[in-house]
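Blackboard transcription, Thursday session:
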Amino acid sequence: MSWRVGVDTGGTFTDVALVDERRGLVAVRKVPSIKEDPSAAIMAGVLGLLAEYGVSYGEIARFNHGTTVAVNAVLEGAATRTALLTTAGFRDVIELARQRRPHLYDMSVRKPVPIIDRELRFEIDERLDIDGVEVRPVDEGSLGAAIAGIRDSGADAIAVCLLHSYADRRHEVEVRRRLQEVLPGVPVSVSSEVHPEYREYERFSTTAVNASLVPVMRRYLDRLSDAVASAGIASPVRVVQSNGGLASTATTGELPVSTLFSGPSAGVLGAAALAAEAGVRDIITFDMGGTSTDVCLVRGGQVPIVHEREMDGRPIMGAMVDVVSVGSGGGSIAWVDDGGLLKVGPRSAGAAPGPVAYGRGGSRPTVTDADCVLGYLHPDAPLAGTLRVDIAAAAGQLEAEVGRRLGLDAVAVAEGVLRVLQADLVRAVRTVSVARGTDPRAFTLVPYGGAGPLHASALARELGIRRVLVPPAPGILCAYGALAADVRGDFGATCVAEATETGLADIVAAYKGLDERATDWARVESVTDAVLTERRIELRYANQSHALVVPLHGEPDADSLRQAVADFHRLYEKRYGYTLPEEPVRVVAVRLTTTAPTERSWSSQPMPEGQATPTVRDIFVDGTWTSAEVYRREALPLGWSCSGPAIVSQLDATTVVLPGQNAGIDEYANLIIEETR
Amino acid sequence: MTPADTAAELDPITTEVIGSALFAITEEMSSALMRTAYSPNIRERGDCSTGLFDAQGHVLAQSQRLPLHMGSLLGSVRSVHERYPVETLRFGDMFVANDPYHGGGSHLPDVNVVAPIFLHDRLIGYAASTAHHSDVGGMVAGSESADCREVFQEGLRLPPVKLVGSGRVQEDVIAIVALNSRVPVDRGGDLHAQIAANRIGQQRLAALAERYGTDRLQDYVDDLLRATERRIRARYAEIEPGAYEHDEYLDPLADGTPLRIHVRLQVRDGRLVFDFTGSSPQLPYARNIPSYALAATAFCVVKTLLDPAIATNDGFYRSIEIIAPEGTIVNPVEPAPVGARALSCGVLADAIAGALSLAAPDRMVAGSGPHQLVVFAGLDERTDDYFVNYETIAGALGATATHDGLDAVRIYASGAANLPVEALEHAFPLRVERYELRDGSGGGGAHRGGRGIRRDYRLLAETARLSLTGERHIEPARGTRGGADGAPGHFVLNPDRVQEAELPRIARDIVLHAGDVLRVETPGGAGHGEAGR
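(Written on the board underneath:)
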């Protein structure tokens, strides 16, 4: 039992990473994704790799994966016929949203189609108040009628969303019990379990999304688990959640909404883990793919967590890695607007038809085409080992679609495309750094994704970042990240109380509720040993509604609460430059995280020995054609170094080193680029 | 390869990159403002905007969360530029202004701070920020009531006044603003946040000028404005030249006098001219639209209908000319009150969109339902505290030639979010018993108008006072090309009971008792085209 398998399913490729627990990352593989049955692509990739390296199935200790099943189902409009059961007068909450237009100016941008059609929304007469006190009991007649309606509707999944259920779940539990008596096979998601916190639109919407995903996710996980088990792999399948932690198929099947940002979270986790191993704890991750770019600022090795993100115009609540996405990627299309300015995106050629240079029918020039024209991508180094880019075709379309209108040749256009792209990327990085009061220059940029390493050196230089760390396998970092993840559960509850001894009883009771949920979770996850518990508490000033999260050290009691309040004042001062010491502090919510850490026994990556001999080709950089050394990443030994301009290509990515930058390989097989100017 | 960098031949790519950098600076200014502001309205709802201007006062880039702010940023910089000649300005100066008649403002709570930017002793531009301050004095809390009869009742009026002199904050000016506010601490904090935001704008624009050279940067900035103008003119070129007239009506005065907004749009020579001659005289209450709110609404509607992605800079703005006779609803004269202009701006937006729809039928949009304002105030017996619940409830957009109108959204230049029911019931002694789409309120048609909202509040406190401001209760949103009108709005007391009563659309201090129910039905958007076709 000494091997681990990490998998990441993407839109185009399914990536597999194979790790030997004694030696580290041994091999990676990309296989085409199969949309109709993602598990088939996974098994093809995994079994192929195991066969090639002679690993017997019984030796697999871990099988972790990041999945796009949930996100694809949401983006494509879930196939599940889902019913809603809610408080009388509130069936439209999931459609009303928050009164904001989805786009400030563009009326053709629509509100998201409600997950649940109006005729599948059923109301029951019941009501709790803000403290969970019953104003009206669940009315038998209306509940019976609603259940009959749901039965007749043929719904495949049900969401139960009652007002103020975060304060007391008894009405929701009662309703679920009745539903399960009448409709035993239909999965029920209740809002007080999916997201037991106040604000009805966000809770109802998250619960509705979850309910619609349960049948899809269960079907998928059952199929994958069966395939894994029948291949003779004994390890359980675990899934990376949006919080960057792993969960069992049982948990994920109940709470698929927690996997919507699975892939990007795994990537951040992998980047943070690799960097930390190399002694770098302050990083900015830069994950650039075909259609979008994700950035995340990791300080002190701590992956930042947020509790609300948007997916396709819908709010998703829960613990998620704090990644900021922009719509620029390798497939972003270059075009000229009616004012005569060069624009890049927001439209993308995506994976299909793709960039012109891929020769798959794409005719609109893209960022990737610009990379080809400037010599960064070259047919001598086929992408993913098979795809040879067509430089002439790329140049032709850049000139035809853009150059002619601007009076520029293909090379000038290509350079322009990258400059315009860079302005967007700079903005994304500044959003997670400068805009939050952090100077990015003290951080190391960690690029990954197919297009990250291509553009990282220039981006770092523009930002004043002096160091870039390119992971050993940047194109499959999400698959690797899945292996670095811990089993993790996040639990939260609304708790409205004074942050003093007066409110202590309520706070203690709220944490007790979280402890119970965590205990149940640990049983499902079979991680009862060696579980770490961290408590955090959300506090705010009495007359403001903006809350900050601070740690609550130890058990919840008067001392730890006092400490948390002191920390709150300090954090507030740091964040906003002032405090209100006289203002009473209130509790908004309590949070608890449990983790079962993954042990890692390897401390370095296997690396080749000997000398790396470069080839030479011309690339366009700093406004001129220069001769650059071209290396194969796989051949670079420990201690290797070179000065830019240089290109380092590998199966899953290509890295550009600019003049004035030095590149080297560290003892963990990372490619380190440093500014010398 | 890259074209020679001469004044004659500017590199279009550098123009785009500089445009992007300017916009990024305004975004960074907004982040700083939201991060350091005291009041939740600015910090959490982002009720603020920032902008960069060149040395002549032309706007280069704006980051706006509320389109209505486009006007006051413009107006405040213009008023500083006019009142303080360049030779009187010093490195590190900043000015504060909010007055709609003397400070380029939009209404008094939107306070503007303007900072000249110097590099090597030369004025290179201005940074400006506007933020909605929750209270600047006046006769009502929140400094915004339809009931005010003159601007003097609406709060503290500021012409451009020096707020920072050579880098030193004039705390005495802040003290005046604070003393006039019901929430004095917030005022100082919010003004300091605006100063901090402008300082970032000063530093970043100066750095950009250092990098490219001040004159070179100005060349590129001029090129950027020209490119933006070319782009919007390409949209205008798709419109049949000519004159297009449209009337829109606000709900009439109590005596039945109709209130008209008349627009004559001329499309000629690559420009749009909006002439409001013929609009009704200014109102005796605070629903007048000052000139910079008029300009902001016009910019917003043109951008929405013709090019949602057009940059909001002078190149776009100068392609639009506005003629509004003094003393009318759309250009009131001092001391006409203007505080609650936002609802009128909803109808104004329909007037502008109506004229533009005639000119560009493929972009046609039917009338919309503006938001409604309700204020509950009284004693919360749960805490023994006085409470004020100031709430805006969205109407809906009209149908377009291609789409149904959006249900339950704020329209055009306005854009705040709602208050969740579960948060509201924590904060106020009210219970919301119904919150739903108002079926049938969107006008029918080939494309349907957006549906408004129905929301019922039950009072739990012993007693409370209710103030109401509604629009489109009498004059509905009008359908286009055979589409049906949107349903008008209603305020109803105790619906479905014997005491049921329709309440007036502008009312103040209605006394409610425990158990009373207020139903708000917001107006729907109108339909477009005949149904079934």
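Lecturer's comment: Residues 238 and 508 of chain B are 48 Å apart (CA to CA).
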